[in-house]
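hey so i finaly got around to running the thing on Probable enoyl-CoA hydratase echA8 from Cryobacterium shii. pasting the sequence first so u can double check i didnt mess up the copy paste, my clipboard has been acting weird all day
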Amino acid sequence: TGYEHIILERRGRVGLITLNRPKALNALNDALMHEVVDAATGLDRDPEIGAIVLTGSERAFAAGADIREMAPQTYQDMYAADWFAGWNALTRLRTPLIAAVAGHALGGGCELAMMCDFILAADTAVFGQPEIRLGVIPGIGGSQRLTRAIGKAKAMEMVLTGRTMDAAEAERCGLVARVVPATRLLDEALATAATIAGMSAPVAMLAKEAVNAAFETTLAEGVHVERRLFHSTFALADQKEGMAAFLEKRAPRFENR
Ligand code: HXC
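ok and heres what it spat out for the 3d tokens, dont ask me to read them lol
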């Protein structure tokens, strides 16, 4: 596939992107960012793919943005390149994207996991925004997404002190959907992705769009958006199939496209 820092695989209708810079604990350099975005947008356009899993290694999902690469940069460099803006491409994916996190998810690693639709964590996962210890602050959405995910008190403490939280605390405060034993993480993530990929693809995309509206709108507006999206599912053959299957007491066969 020509990628240097990631591994891209297809497992049936699930796309699997594995961050693969083991010597740097998957530190997110610019080249890796371009590869992840390229792979993810390619999978997003592929009608054979219904869900994507993004994972790292046992030791680290990602230990942050690449400190070696950032260290010499000036303000002008960062501003001119609009450093990290490229990651926003992931928020435009319509295909559901699951982060499967084991080990360190620090700084940009935590932020990347939070850009995914939800996080499945191994019991070894450690989350944190330690940027302040390097004399900087989060730059890939951490101050915003962590605050929305776990609330002001914990987010503020983590961002101001750089302290980390383990998987159990992350589940307790709603940062992750579920914690599983480390040895089961990838299987659980792939199985969850396969479940999603077995649904009607356009309906899964509409569902994702509806949930995401909760972060961008007032309640009344979000409920309105949801109702219109709900109405639009009645334009799909998959709505007829799903409801007919229920009434006929059989499994639905969605068109998946
Ligand atoms: C570049 C990194 C790195 C990083 C680890 N490495 N994290 N390289 N950028 N973010 C490299 C180390 O330099 C080392 O390379 C190798 O990976 C193994 O790391 P060790 O530190 O030897 O491993 P260990 O002792 O197990 O400690 C793991 C760790 C620690 C606790 C995760 O590596 C660590 O604290 N990393 C930095 C975490 C961090 O501050 N992340 C936030 C980054 S800033 P060598 O060549 O020595 O073997 C960020 C900001 C985004 O993400 C937006 C604002 C700028």
